[in-house]
């Protein structure tokens, strides 16, 4: 039945999409990702006392979240297919949608087309246009995509330079502050070999507003960011070290994560300043049965208006496989956020124990079905508040001394990708 379904799926989609009757869908590939379950809480003050986790547990003002036993429901899915081919030249199309728990929130995540094998000397070079996930770099354990410019755009990628590959993209995001149209120029050099099982990726981003006229004299209208990502693999696993430096509108980085996605493009407000950040993460395979994920991250966001912060995160997730189907994982995480204006330090300690039924051994085996319990200790000393006391993502840190909250959560979920 499964094989029959996948054979009929391309035919059904070809009838729904506005292709000509002569078009054929070749190399049709379904793809997707899902994480789904329920998490309960003993915190009677959370979610109006409903007893259910309604948001991830993380340090206030921080970035990302330790995701084991600490994720909201999400699904996404779609397909990639070739639309036309003549000789070696191929045109293809990708379509991808996703949502949380409500079908009313379903949105288009990717819809783009590309052409490759256009030139005999550059068979892998690709020209593309549309909305897409673009060359994202991610720390899976803390759910942070630390270099993510995914949006509408146009570009050329995989141009072979001999020593590496070049990629250029012109992306079209909107301001996180006022939704004005922006231009994000993205230039990268990847696959630069540094020896056996080691490579380097270098990149530069330049962001500016389409309309740079503002009544506010101190409004930031442009920004830039430099990135370097070094990856080293060896017999016990792999390690990635990333360094980024950003200015002004990109001082907060190009991150997609809790606490970062909604302040990615900081134009139209006062956001002059700089930042630098480090991510060091990877996995260690001690033997066939015992492995671990780890992550260490730091950011110093220094703004001229004193609204920046220093963020630190460190964690590890060892996992033991009892056999090819059953594993136990223990995630230990710490996070702190210091306000630049000395309003205080927010922090989080988190410990999660999970029993996992998964398809194979190792930290990357999926699908995974999990039962888990989490203890967390969260201390909130400051929040971003306007003069009237309302929360605002760009407001100055204000000392609140909300205090510590210890919480126990438990539940179940599954995670799969294909």
Molecular structure report:
- The chain has one helix at 2-16, and strands at 26-41, 74-86, 89-99, 107-116, 126-132, 137-139, 144-147, 151-160, 165-171, 182-193, 198-209, 222-234, 237-248, 273-285, 290-303, 309-321, 326-339, 345-358, 368-384, 397-417.
- It starts with a helix and ends with a strand.
- The model is unreliable at 1-8 (pLDDT under 50).
- The chain has an 18-stranded antiparallel beta barrel.
- The chain has 1 helix and 20 strands.
- It is 4% helix and 56% strand.
- The protein is mainly beta and 418 residues long.
What secondary-structure arrangement, pairings included, does this model have?
Blueprint: H1 2-16, E1 26-41, E2 74-86, E3 89-99, E4 107-116, E5 126-132, E6 137-139, E7 144-147, E8 151-160, E9 165-171, E10 182-193, E11 198-209, E12 222-234, E13 237-248, E14 273-285, E15 290-303, E16 309-321, E17 326-339, E18 345-358, E19 368-384, E20 397-417
Antiparallel strand pairs: 1-2, 1-20, 2-3, 3-4, 4-5, 5-8, 6-7, 8-9, 9-10, 10-11, 11-12, 12-13, 13-14, 14-15, 15-16, 16-17, 17-18, 18-19, 19-20
List keywords for this structure.
418 residues; mainly beta; two-stranded antiparallel sheet; 1 helix; 4% helix; 56% strand; globular; disordered N terminus
């Amino acid at each position: 039945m499964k094989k029959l379904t996948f054979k009929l799926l391309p035919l059904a989609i070809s009838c729904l999409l506005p292709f000509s009757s002569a078009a054929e869908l070749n190399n049709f590939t379904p793809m997707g990702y899902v994480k789904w379950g329920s998490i309960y809480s003993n915190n009677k003050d959370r979610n109006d006392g409903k007893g259910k986790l309604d948001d991830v547990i993380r340090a206030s003002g921080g970035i990302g979240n330790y995701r084991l036993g600490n994720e909201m429901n999400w699904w996404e899915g779609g397909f990639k297919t070739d639309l036309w081919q003549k000789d070696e030249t191929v045109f293809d199309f990708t379509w991808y949608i996703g949502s949380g728990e409500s079908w009313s929130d379903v949105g288009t995540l990717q819809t783009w087309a590309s052409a490759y094998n256009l030139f005999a000397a550059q068979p892998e070079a690709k020209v593309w246009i549309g909305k897409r996930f673009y060359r994202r770099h991610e720390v899976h354990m803390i759910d942070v995509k630390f270099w993510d410019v995914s949006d509408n755009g146009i570009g050329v990628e995989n141009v072979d330079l001999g020593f590496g590959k070049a990629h250029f993209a012109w992306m079209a995001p909107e301001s996180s502050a006022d939704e004005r149209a922006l231009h994000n120029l993205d230039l990268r050099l990847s696959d630069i070999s540094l020896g056996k099982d080691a490579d380097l990726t270098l990149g530069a981003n330049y962001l500016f507003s389409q309309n740079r006229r503002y009544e506010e004299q101190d409004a930031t209208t442009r920004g830039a960011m430099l990135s370097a990502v070094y990856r080293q693999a060896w017999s016990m696993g792999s390690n990635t070290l990333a360094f980024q430096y950003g200015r002004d509108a990109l001082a907060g980085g190009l991150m997609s994560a809790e606490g970062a996605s909604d302040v990615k493009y900081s134009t139209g407000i006062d956001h002059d300043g700089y930042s630098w950040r480090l991510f060091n993460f990877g996995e260690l395979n001690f033997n066939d049965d015992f492995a671990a994920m780890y992550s260490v991250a730091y950011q110093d966001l220094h703004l001229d208006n004193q609204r920046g912060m220093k963020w630190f995160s460190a964690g590890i997730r060892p996992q033991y496989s009892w056999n090819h189907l059953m594993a136990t994982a223990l995630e230990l995480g710490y996070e702190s956020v210091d306000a630049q204006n000395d309003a205080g330090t927010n922090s989080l300690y988190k410990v999660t124990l999970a029993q996992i039924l998964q398809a194979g051994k190792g930290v990357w085996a999926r699908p995974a079905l999990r039962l888990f319990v989490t203890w967390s200790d969260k201390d909130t000393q400051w929040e971003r508040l306007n003069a009237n006391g309302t929360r605002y993502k760009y407001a100055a840190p204000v000392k609140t001394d909300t205090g510590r909250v210890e919480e126990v959560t438990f539940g179940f979920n599954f995670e799969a990708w294909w």
